[in-house]
Amino acid sequence: MNDVSHDLLATFQAALQLPVPAPPVALPDGGSLTSIFAVSDLAQASVGVAGSALAALVAQRGDPPDVSVDRDLASVWFRWSIRPQGWEIPPPWDAVSGDYLCQDGWIRLHANAPHHRAAILAVLDVPAERDEVAAAARSWPAHDLESAVVGTGGAAAAMRSEAEWRAHPQGRAVAIERLVSMERTSKSNGPDEPAADVSRPLEGLRVLDLTRVLAGPVATRLLAGWGADVLRVDPLDWDEPSVAPEVTLGKRCARLDLREAHGKDTLLGLLREADVLVHGYRPGALDHLGLGAQTRDETRPGLVDVSLDAYGWTGPWRDRRGFDSLVQMSTGIADAGRAASGGDQPVPLPVQALDHATGYLLAASVLAGLVLRRSDGEGSRWRLSLARMANVLLETDRVGPQDERHGRALVTPDATGAIEATAWGEARRLAPPLIVEGSPLHWSIPARPLGTDEPVWLAR
Description:
This protein has helices at residues 3-16, 39-59, 71-77, 114-124, 130-137, 142-151, 162-167, 169-175, 215-225, 244-247, 261-272, 285-288, 293-299, 324-331, 333-341, 353-376, 386-394, and strands at 67-69, 82-84, 98-101, 106-110, 155-158, 181-187, 206-210, 229-234, 251-255, 276-279, 304-309, 378-385, 420-422, 425-429, 434-436. α2 packs parallel to α16, α9 crosses α16 and α16 (353-376) crosses α17. The protein is built from 17 helices and 15 strands. It has a single domain (86-397, 442-460), classed as Rossmann fold, CATH 3.40.50. A seven-stranded mixed sheet has the order 6-12-11-10-7-8-9, with helices on both faces. By secondary structure, it is α/β, with parallel strands linked by helices. β7, α9 and β8 form a beta-alpha-beta unit. The model has no long low-confidence stretch (mean pLDDT 94). The longest helix is centred in the C-terminal third of the chain and has 24 residues, at 353-376.
């Protein structure tokens, strides 16, 4: 028995506050990703809580199913699930993105989005060449460069130690936030999702997906695997070429300009007929678009409204742009890895574990919201953050040289499933890591580029 995985699973199950006992989940032993942090335990437990929440939903209309999570597969799904056949996925990082040495420490600059790269280059007053960026960064104190880039609309994070994070006003704010914050909202005034067969337990469920890289898309990919009609909506100018083949599986993908009246009206029409909304806008961003919590609640009474942000929902950084790699730098994870390695450079986690773990907990929150709505007809609003997930990992026992988990290599499976005819070419997927008895994960729509589909719901 892997005690760390079970302890993390219990933490996640308690955070959901399900009104029914959480069904048991089998977490068999396996290998581990190489890290001082319990990354594979986090992977197995977070996948497991999503399975536990689905089992609770199924149990409302029948017997609770058995649930199990393959540790090796869960770990590898935190890295990739798709294996292209004869084509390649674009590199995951822009050439400017990365870690840079400053006058007094390290900073990570996130330049994957064009406007984020433009902010970095404007602050440093250099062309988009890595050597030029590195030379300019060395003349800045790390925290000053972080503030300048963020203040210009970019995304950056100076490397802090765990002690610095705990003492920082944002670290103190996140420390007292709930891992999963939930409040009940309005009584549903119309029919909820239709009853589905246990083999496709979410069939007919309409999920409006307003998320981007990476936690939210992981959550909605899982929901699609159980039959949900997931409609992802992106801005006109947004793209994720290196991520879309991984996370658009099972979804339809549309575009709307929410800054103009037609786009906003179309989105409100979609929301009116949705069962679930998952969004990753920073706090207040939807309010500025006229789509705040009250509007969402009035538009679709009984909505299961689930959201995430990077740095938490309170504190001075609650509006700060952030990504997994940046949160690792801010919270002390990268510095702890550096210290354990004996080197002087940041050592991040081997995968984007905060994104993936938060994604599975987001999916579990959706399912818990459905359990509650089936019980009393009321909607719910849920909030999670990458920074709060980072605290979970920081507070979990680490892997030392004598730990039995240290050095146990993963058994990396081959992607041997049926051919998936993606928009880029044929591919294969790994087998899912999660098995819920009688409710196998299966995606009926192959991965596709963003903006492929019209912003309409399927008939049900």
